[in-house]
Amino acid sequence: MGNGLGKVIQPIYDEVIARNPAEKEFHQAVREVLESLGPVLAKHPEFGEHKIIQRICEPERQIIFRIPWTTDKGEDMINRGFRVQFNSALGPYKGGLRFHPTVYLGIIKFLGFEQIFKNALTGMPIGGAKGGSDFDPKGKSDSEIMRFCQSLMTELHRHIGEHTDVPAGDIGVSAREIGFMYGQYKRLSNKWEAGVLTGKGLAWGGSLVRKEATGYGAVFFVHEMLKARGDDFEGKICTVSGSGNVAIYTIEKIHQLGGKCVACSDSGGVIYHEKGLDLDLIKQLKEVDRRRISEYTKHHKDAVYKEKGNIWEIPCHVAMPSATENELDGKDAAMLVKNGCIAVGEGANMPTTPEGVEVFLKAKIAYGPGKAANAGGVATSALEMQQNAMRDAWSFEETEVKLHKIMKNIHQLCYETAEEYGEPGNYVVGANIAGFVKVARAMLAHGVI
Ligand code: NDP
User: Whose Cα sits closest to atom 22 in ligand 1?
Assistant: First the structure.
């Protein structure tokens, strides 16, 4: 964000870069947290003395493995699998698996690092991890996806377990993939261990509201930020990038709270529908038929599809980036602010570049960073683990009330921490410090490990 890191923290950051070369997303995620921590070290010299920051930046364990599988045509394929078990100070490692061709160690480490603080903010007993593969699920048949997931789990099963490490979904991994992986885990372990994966199907240990949780949670968070400024979603024009799991349920909750979402996207282009998006159609296209968002205009002649368009050019009151990292840069942020945007809530992880974040903070709009705003997904995964441990299943209403309460608490914690450290209204500082302090205290208590 252009802030200096200061005499104490700069050498720590330099060492992270030297030890992890060519992992630019990881560097970005580390820098963004470290920029907030100067005042924390001043207040808690014990964290500095015991090198808590240096330890938190080094994953406890990194696993990289081969995933061989065969296409429907009989061609042998090789992908690379990752699981980075970053920090278990607060509980078993927890974090999703991403299947996308851009995946490499630097992406998994940035996501795993963010996950440590996000999970701490939820108040649930979960550590931080992330994993995935450079496998591209696009255009693959169900049986190819199944064989790939089985091969991945053939290695991964040795490293996970309900008390060790509990993966879930992320980009390219939904209930279908979790099902194939769970089936293979069950076969290899000869155990019904529901708590080993979250995001499961409802008939076999899944939780109601898990599918909706990240999107709903992000909207709850933005609603709290708006309320803190005496405002709400009623009548607000909103744009949501992406059209996957997070985007769909972000749009749904915005509509339920009286906002109007006019645009969404995928990696091919942007849909703009002035009278408000038809969410039933989007669900049919994306969740059931697995099609591209461009097909939306076949059903709504008054909607516009812009190939390779930029969703942030569309004027809105609330923007919710919900696709992928670094999808909103400094120019986009300036355009949003100029066009009257008053709030940004990140459904995706690190979707705004450091330059973009700086624009939002300078403009003093309500800006909710991903590690706080999208924590509802992992929080509901932890609720799924609770239900599995109790062999129970809660109703939709009961689970949504719990999610809502967790998001309100996260907002409150970030808000109060930002005030305590002299940066009122800065949720970046609030989230980074609140998450860090919680993990740091637990690490100190566990000794030098
Ligand atoms: P999905 O796979 O369901 O959807 C991803 C969406 O983002 C798709 O519309 C996809 O378009 C688009 N997208 C992905 N990669 C790119 C890219 N490189 N450029 C442009 N568009 C892209 O994933 P989710 O909705 O689960 O995840 C979205 C974001 O939310 C990610 O950042 C993820 O880490 C984060 N997140 C997800 C959580 C969850 O519970 N699922 C929890 C917390 C955060 P296309 O189909 O064209 O690729």
Answer: 267
Helix, coil or strand: residue 163? coil
- Whether 403 lines ligand 1, by a CB cut-off of 6 Å, is no
List, by residue number, the catalytic residues.
130
Task: Please tell me the distance between residue 348's alpha carbon and the centre of ligand 1 in angstroms.
Answer: 7
Separation of alpha carbons 380 and 378, rounded Å? 5
* Shortest-distance atom of ligand 1 to CA 265: 9
Q: What is the pLDDT of residue 1?
A: 47
Residue whose CA is at the smallest distance from ligand 1 atom 10: 266
The angle formed by the CA atoms of residues 61, 63 and 69, to the nearest 5 degrees, is 165
Mutation test of ligand 1: which of 28, 171, 312 has the most ligand atoms closer than 8 Å to its C-beta? Answer: 171
Local structure of 96: helix, strand or coil: strand
User: What digits encode the pLDDT tens for the residues 264-307?
Assistant: 999 999 999 999 999 999 999 999 999 999 999 999 999 999 99
3-state secondary structure of 175: helix
Non-local (6+) Cβ contacts of 378 within 8 A are 94, 95, 96, 115, 118, 119, 122, 124, 126, 168
- CA–centroid distance, 375 to ligand 1, in Å, is 15
Around 427, how many Cα atoms within 13 Å sit in the side-chain half-sphere?
27
DSSP 172: T
- Domains of the chain in start order, with CATH, are 61-192 (3.40.50.10860), 211-368 (3.40.50.720)
Beta strands, E only, 267-380:
269-272, 304-307, 318-320, 343-345, 366-368
